[in-house]
Amino acid sequence: MRLHLAPALIPVLLLLNAGYTSAEASTSGGGLNPPGLQPIINRANVLLSSGHFGDAAKAYSEAIDQSPTDYLLYYKRATAYLSLQRHSSALEDFDKVLSLTSGTFDNAHLQKARIYLKDGAFSLARSSLSAYLKAKKGVREPEVEQLEKDIAEGDRLRGKAEKERRAQLWSACVESASLALRVASHSIEVRNWRAECAVASGDVESAVGDLTRLSNLLPPSTTLLIHTFRLAYFLLPSSPASHNSLKQCLHFDPDSKPCLALHRLSKQLDRSFAQLDELLAKEDWKGAVKLLTGAGAKNELWKRWEEALAEQMKPEQLLPLVPETLLAGHVQSDGKKKKTVMPPIPLPDAAKTSPKRQHLARALCKSYTHLADVAPSSTAYASARTQYCNLLLSLHGCAEDVDGLVGKADSLLGSSSNDDGAWDEAVRLYEKAFEAGGRSDRTVHQKLGKAQRKIKVSKQKDYYKIVGVSRDADAKTIKKAYRKAAKFAHPDKGGSEAKMAALNEAYEVLSNPELRERFDSGEDPMDPQAQAQGGHPFGAGDPFAQFFAQGQRRPFAGPGGFQYQQGGGSFHFSGGF
């Protein structure tokens, strides 16, 4: 693989271009080159200068096998290793260079200082830089001065991050660790702290990135890879990248039981999620509900996810993020091996933050909302809609979820009355959903209008209440209730003209299927404003006019020609009471 050459390696290429080859070094020392050595060196030099560092390192290894005392070969191979970020191998070769040259090859000290800085071994970086300056008799080039500043700043930031990690100042810890990693990019200690603080602060995505990087810096570990997978799969949005660490785990250990078990589990869940997305795309709400809550091994997706989430997100399944055995032998900034005891970190509430769980809750809420619209008399659909839409709105970042707001509003609007302000709250939720949806969802807008009309009507008249029937009463029940109520509303029976007029108006609406449907949808068909707009079905006039039978101004002749008799006159009820 071809890589870009780091600026720190430019002096090496200048050294090569100046003609300092191993062959010349050997000749100057009076030695003879082994047969075939020079072509290998030439090939290695070309590979190094062209950025093919892996192949260059192999070629230099071949040359070293033939000339094991040539310090310049070790130096060049160390340069290739450094470009490959193989710091341990590079340090070994730089130490070999110093050994072969009795510590006089001062540039090896400088390269070691750079490596130690990147690794976060600040004391060792200072020591190597001091050795370099001693060889240079205190002369400080600009790059050396900058290196000194970076070492001091990196060490300061490392100490600051450590204190903040210990004090559980999670956001501050992430910030300090990030600044430290700018100069000490390979510091396992600091990167581990940043991963822990990121998880504790809720930034799981950043933590997964750091753990992935640590899995490359540290020796292979199935435990670390499994921890990375669990965080990525259960706490981040769906992505093929979430499976990368699990693939690495199986590549490292194909027989790993934990990795194989997680592989099977994730495959089963992924298939079910794909099926759910297909059902939702087709608006197959019953099919979606069956997959989520129906009985059977291939269904029960909601239950299976809940069980997997609870099991995989246990603290003992994730902490510590990086096994202590991997960190135990790490060289710290003071050059000594030590164990820093830190307080445990809190994990995010997986039930609240898992994007996949939010997706399932949204699917249930939306499906039951549509099913309840189609079958408004189903208490089971209405109850499930309330349950899952309320759950969805309670999840992290879902307080303004459009589906959740609409479902909850539908449930509130289904209340029998607005005595407790349920309908007013429904209007507020519809408005919120309409805004959250970019004011472009026609369905939400229609529901908002319906709710507003329903409230308006409720504040004016309730024809069902006037007649004394429920909203689901049939025509026969309404007629019977009307006749019963008319006996008490008539002025001759202790009622009043106003009561009788109101009863008659209510019956006129409820006995007419078209008017009743308009009233049920939130419109008052007897509203004078609607009449002024041309929407009143009866036109203007005396509300008692229909009771005037054959010129006789007895205003309470109801449907069916009923009559009351009083003072020699009579009202006749052909339907009877």
What does this structure look like?
With 577 residues, the chain is mostly helical. Among the domains are: 7-153, Serine Threonine Protein Phosphatase 5, Tetratricopeptide repeat (Alpha Horseshoe); 368-460, Alpha Horseshoe (Serine Threonine Protein Phosphatase 5, Tetratricopeptide repeat); 464-547, DnaJ domain (Helix Hairpins). The protein has 30 helices and no strands. Residues 1-5, 10-30 and 533-577 have low confidence and may be disordered.
Question: In a few lines, what is going on in this structure?
Answer:
By secondary structure, the protein is mostly helical. The protein has helices spanning 10-17, 22-28, 37-49, 53-66, 71-83, 87-100, 106-119, 122-135, 142-166, 170-183, 188-201, 204-217, 222-235, 244-252, 257-281, 285-293, 301-312, 315-318, 324-327, 350-353, 355-374, 379-394, 402-413, 422-436, 442-460, 463-467, 475-489, 497-510, 513-520, 528-532. Among the domains are: 7-153, Serine Threonine Protein Phosphatase 5, Tetratricopeptide repeat; 368-460, Alpha Horseshoe (Serine Threonine Protein Phosphatase 5, Tetratricopeptide repeat); 464-547, Orthogonal Bundle (Helix Hairpins), CATH 1.10.287.110.
